[in-house]
Amino acid sequence: MINKPNGYDEATAFTGEFETLEPGGKILVIKKAEEVQSSKGGRMFVFMFDIAEGDEKGFFERQWNADKERPMRKWRGTYNQLMEGKSLPFFKGLITSIEESNPGYKWNWDETTLKGKLIGGIFRREEYRKQNGDIGITTKCQNVRSVQAIREGVPVPEDKRIADDGSPALTTPKAYNFEALGSDEELPF
Fold this sequence. Notes:
3 helices; alpha+beta; 15% helix
């Protein structure tokens, strides 16, 4: 006879089915934003978001809630933009898109004022190499635009493929953990 593992009755059953995000334009709501240091030491603006409208509304919160059994779960709806040098025009474009998407809002360099603001996101599917060498696919926010541009329609980007050169490098999608969580029930913002 098998002994029942501790926590079995409380565990969420994973049956192999999960919700996927379709590529294309989406209206996003910013949950949290901050400046972090990039892997190369540069200034990088990162914001956490969720889908704000449509059939996929609340997609990342549902992922977060479904992931509660993982000890190191992370919020997966993130967008990052370098803020210096050749990337400065793209950072300014991101801020301009936020301002255009939220009538009356003017960026004041206080990232806490971004919580609850809308912005448009363009999503594409991207392949990545899993730890076991298999290729997986995820859907990530590739670019940002104004909400109006998304509502007017944007083309669905082509999938980003990786070369199947046998490289063992892990390129799992990155997710940011902005702060330590106080409990498993709290959202990370």
